[in-house]
Structure prediction request, 360 residues.
Amino acid sequence: MKDDKKLCKLVSRLNLCCSRDGKLLTHELKTSGVTLPAAVLCGRIRDVLAYSRGDDLETIPTNLTSWETRYPLLPSAEVTPSYWPPVTKIQQYDWSNITPQPWSLMCLRKSRNGKLHWHGRNLKVLVKIYSPTRERYVLQEIQGVPAVPKLLGITSAIPRALILERCQGKTFGHMRKISQWSCLEGLVQLCRTMAILHGRGIVHGDLNKHNLIVDRGQGKTSITLLNYEKARNILYMEPARAKTHLHKDLAALCHMAMKLKKFKCVKDYREFVLRLQAGQQSGHPVTAAQMAEEMQAILDSYPDRPSLFCMNVKRKVRGALKHLRRVFAPRKTKGGKEDGGGQPQHQPEHLKQGEEACHT
Prediction:
């Protein structure tokens, strides 16, 4: 026991700030004063170092203790599930079978379209140099979820890179200028995907217009959600309180829905945006499943997808005509008679004084 106490004291003095797990481990040892056995402490340290370096699955211990009993005490804390990391292996490929080569990825951009030469075939892929995060493990865990790119494998040599299936289409920010109906359909699919991830206790952490790819191929709209570097695990069914990871995801979804400004001519969509704003201000945002249902109802009410430009022009013309009718409508005088319209209802004082002077 004395040796275990000394080891825990030494570890608490270390600066394990390379990851959130290291910070939580040192915070636990300093504040609670719990004495962990040497084997458990060794496994925890190896876990922190493995995640910070991005080591292979074979080098990470799979018999780690579950931390779910401690995290409910910390609001919005990152949770390590009991089955973490996934025990299934990822296919590894050599850099000689991949284009582009690592030097171009390291110097120019971290992710580029390329090709994978495998068994005499050239597969179109997306090659991405991944940072020491849990992106590869999160992608491996959520394979099969709609709008999630297919993980083909990783490179066997350093620098490590993810090999993903290439996605077609344009970013949400670019597609928003071309077809906002397609963007709305893509947002419905995105909300359904986020509802599935939130139900599994996973948040994306970096939802924006650059990480959402919208494709209108063959008359159907499909999306792909990229960049899971900031993805993390949360408490299951955690309430979306302010300043939590789940609240940030929902706020990003609301922001993307509000960017479709051409839908102001649709009354149902205006009311939907007002509900989103009210939920954000009250601290109880609308969930992703509810957003998907409401936006799908708006799409079902317009099956022919009319031109939003014509609808906005008609709305402005109707507003102008309503204003003209209100200005030039006949008004009743004190005697009950109607005077002609076209004159302002209240005259300024200097005009009244001028008329009285003319009469005298």
